Amino acid sequence: MTINPRLDALGEPTFSRLTQLLAPIAPRANETPIVMSVGDPMHQPPPMLAEIVAAHAQLWNKYPPMAGTPELRSAIADWLTRRYRLAPGTVTADRHVLPLAGTKEGLFLAALLVVPERKAGQPPAVLLPNPFYLTHQGGAGLSGGEPVYLETSAATSHLPDLDRLSPALLQRTALFYLCSPDNPTGGCADQAYLERLLLLARQYDFVVAIDECYCEIYDRTPPVGGLEAAAALGGDLANLLVFHSLSKRSNAGGLRSGFVAGDPRLIAGFLRLRNYGGSQVPLPVQAASAALWRDETHVGPNRDRYRAKIDAAEAVLRDRFGFYRPDGGFFLWLDVGDGVRAAERLWREAAVRTLPGRYMSRPGSDGTSPGDRFIRVALVHDESTIAAALERCLRVL
Ligand SMILES: Cc1ncc(COP(=O)(O)O)c(C=O)c1O
Predict the structure, then answer these.
(1) N or C: the chain end with fewer CB closer than 10 Å?
(2) What is the structure's pLDDT at 2?
(3) Is-contact 76 293, C-beta < 8 A?
(4) Ligand 1 contact, 245 CB (< 6 A)
(5) How far apart are CA 58 and CA 39, in angstroms?
(6) CB atoms within 10 A of CB 89
């Protein structure tokens, strides 16, 4: 019996590593533990979610359509058109969108969908940012392609530097994962960056998969989306897939509902692929999801609550540990010198659980990774808990 060696090559997943690191450590007994390592939304979803699921309870016996109901598909197409101010018809319910049982599975399956055995007569490459969100690494690593980690930092605005991609690499690139807003760094691509990436994808015939799950949690300006870049280039969605989720926008991580949109040829292929190994979205969940995508009243107040958390963090940290307000998402990416050691100390001495940046990044040949100096801190608690936790961090570090 063998386990797929590609799985072993990926190493331990982020949170297993964190558990192994912190399990032997007993946090100070006199302080209440505060978990800031996971990005689990703490706000409740709108009540309509539970009401609509309950109202469709007679549908739990039915296998749902893999392609999604027409109601959900049109709610998604309408939301995309509104959110990204697209010309009518740029995204249609029939051809351009496909519901997913959470974005995670779609991001992973995207690599199985598009990575061939060979590209331009060579082993195919899958490009991804470093540091990364685990699923992008998983898709890249299990696809059969060679994962190519593109280092990002404040100097590159937390985005892969497109100037550093050689034509030789681009020729054998099959897939490029981008995360915007980025988990963990909060960086957001601007319109020029996305247009350039899409043009490269078309020139070298690879697929751009943009994870836009945090697009509704932003500080100042709404992050630009891949579809807006495609629209500016004439409206053709060729070579583009964008991924969206209700997990953060509507605080519905437990609903497992998201979607992929983009190039109609890829969407048709995605449906075929998911018929083999994807999970349908249950009909009561589809009904609730359609209503959530149609509703904007809960989205702005939710964003404001995250902004207040960032304000609370800024009031405590000011410019320490390289604090900056993330353009999007709800994570702080703090430069603490040695992220693993800081996470250990914060748990032992302050009962605050954080995630070492090293566990979201890949070391290079010299053994160092671009996440080594950092911890990721999820701002999901209320402001006073965040302030108390960060005060404790300051005391220890
Ligand atoms: C960057 C990023 N993409 C995707 C996901 C998964 O989203 P979903 O709940 O829709 O599967 C997460 C979840 O934390 C995430 O941080």
Answers:
(1) N
(2) 87
(3) yes
(4) yes
(5) 33
(6) 10
Decide whether any atom of ligand 1 lies within 6 Å of the 312 Cβ: no
Domains of the chain: 5-43+299-396 (3.90.1150.10), 58-294 (3.40.640.10)
Neighbours of 31 (CB within 10 A): 14
pTM above 0.90, yes or no: yes
Dump pLDDT digits (tens) for 211-220.
999 999 999 9
Predicted pLDDT of residue 227: 98
**Confidence category of residue 1, pLDDT binned at 50, 70, 90:** confident
How far away, in angstroms, is 104 Cα from ligand 1 center?
6
* Separation of alpha carbons 266 and 208, rounded Å: 11
Give residue 114 CA to ligand 1 midpoint distance, Å.
20
Neighbours of 193 (CB within 10 A): 18
Q: Is the peptide bond before 47 cis (omega within 30 degrees of 0)?
A: no
Distance 119 CA to ligand 1 centre (A): 29
| Cα 215 to Cα 224: distance, rounded to the nearest angstrom | 8
> Which residue from 247, 279, 285, 292 has its CB within 8 A of the most atoms of ligand 1, so it is best to mutate?
247
Bond prior to 184 in cis (omega within 30° of 0): yes
Q: What is the pLDDT of residues 270-304, one digit of tens each?
A: 999 999 999 999 999 999 999 999 999 999 999 99
* pLDDT tens profile 297-338: 999 999 999 999 999 999 999 999 999 999 999 999 999 999
Helix (H) / strand (E) element for 90: namely none
Q: Which atom of ligand 1 is nearest the CA belonging to 179?
A: 1
- pLDDT tens digits along 161-203: 999 999 999 999 999 999 999 999 999 999 999 999 999 999 9
Q: Alpha-carbon distance 173 to 392, whole Å? A: 45
Q: Is the N-terminal amide bond of 181 cis, ω within 30° of 0? A: yes
Q: Which residues contact 102 (CB under 8 A, 6 or more apart)?
A: 245, 247, 256, 257, 258
Q: Which helix (H) or strand (E) holds 294?
A: helix 283-294
In the block, tokens 């320490």 appear at 320
Question: If you measure from the C-alpha of residue 142 to the centroid of ligand 1, how many angstroms do you get, rounded to a whole number?
Answer: 18
pLDDT > 90: percent of the chain:
98
Strand pairing partners for 242? 210, 261
